[in-house]
Design brief:
Layout: H1 4-18, E1 25-37, E2 40-47, E3 56-59, E4 63-70, E5 78-81, H2 87-90, E6 105-111, E7 116-122, E8 139-145, E9 155-171, E10 174-184, E11 195-197, E12 202-209, E13 216-220, E14 225-230, E15 233-241, E16 243-246, E17 251-257, E18 263-268, H3 271-275, E19 279-284, E20 317-326, E21 335-338, E22 349-352, E23 356-363, E24 369-373, E25 378-383, E26 386-387, E27 392-393, E28 395-398, E29 403-409, E30 416-420, H4 423-427, E31 431-437
Parallel strand pairs: 1-4, 3-8, 9-12, 11-19, 20-23, 22-31
Antiparallel strand pairs: 1-2, 4-6, 5-7, 7-8, 9-10, 12-17, 13-16, 13-18, 14-15, 14-17, 18-19, 20-21, 23-29, 24-28, 24-30, 25-26, 25-27, 25-29, 30-31
Amino acid sequence: MLNRRDFLGLLAATALADTPAPPDFTLRIGPVTLEPQKGKVVHTTGYNGMVPGPLLRVPEGKTITIEVVNETDIPELAHWHGLHIPSDVDGAMEEGTPMVPPGGTRRYTFSAKPAGARWYHSHIRAERNLKRATYTAQFGFFYIEPRNDPGAFDREVFLALKEWDPYFGGGDEGIEVAYRHNSINDKALGHGEPIRVKQGDRVMLRILNASATMHRRIAIAGHSFRVVTMDGNPVAVPREVGALELGPAERIDAVVEMENPGVWILGETDDRERRNGLGIVIEYADKTGAPQWLPPSTEVWNYAAFGGPADAGDPGQRVPLVFKKKFAGSRWVDYWTINGKEYPKTDPIQVKQGRRYRLIFDNQSDEAHPVHLHRHTFELADIAGVGTSGVFKDVVVVPAMRQVEVDLVANNPGLTLFHCHQQMHMDYGFMTLLEYLR
């Protein structure tokens, strides 16, 4: 027979056994206030009161648990962008991931892979509400440390390109989104701490375009970038360039050799956008003065420059995906179709596990589209008629009136979302699902 002490001990042990282990990370979705420029206060929604949200840094292959607490009054989702994880934890309602209800909590447990620069962000629809989804501060870096990384740099800096206070602009050709303020991370050019360096430093810049809608071209006055990864994946041919281009959701890791002492600007090459805040100062030790800007290289950005020769092998089954715009009328939002249909009426992309497919992105519109495939990585095969190989991505910008072809190995079964990462395009029809056939 149990005595009172033994009985209480048994109750305590049972309670401990039923208590879940603490999560590796906790993200709280709630109000955030930032001041990108003095006197310019922005009230939005973010993670843990920070902009960007906390850096999630884990070893490759580690199984982790992330707890997401929704302290807002609307259902939310956190999407783990670029990870190869199951559909039910990927963070897309269309794939079957449950929403995080207002005032509720959900846990996501998965193995952190593949290695490299990933990120996380809200994955709900915004439509005409510009205080939701990727218009907010709900984004953060997710870095998965490779098992074998020589780390050939002296320091690393995470930089997110972002805009604030969105509003509807445009005219007879349809409504577009514009912004009142720009920043890198949470500060506009000249209003935050500089990146302080010493001559001879090799600085790894991990750059994310966290914009809801804007394509960006950035440069560093007096310096060049050595691109080593795109979307977290090593490129076939690392190369020096004078400027980087990133569509929404794209990431580039680039090493900068600090060999030109002075006070310089890293920023948007468009003068108006840079003056409106999209930049950051780079300051060498013992150097002072006004930050300098020099006109950057006018070289054309091309993914193929970082790839190897075109792969002459069998590309597998060809899957055409035609993108078109449906004009919705003056002062209204345009709709978008894939193969003639808007989501949720779009036809799914059907694949079988283990097979290789050539996806043909045929952009028959006058806008570039940063298209994203969840839970997979694809290899660029042809960029507007230029064959290539060895560049692996999860987002690719398809230029206006051009085609891009990518090769996909269907190796992660489950419903998978494919969409344009421009928030307005995604909200108004530019989505479909990739589904695995038995």
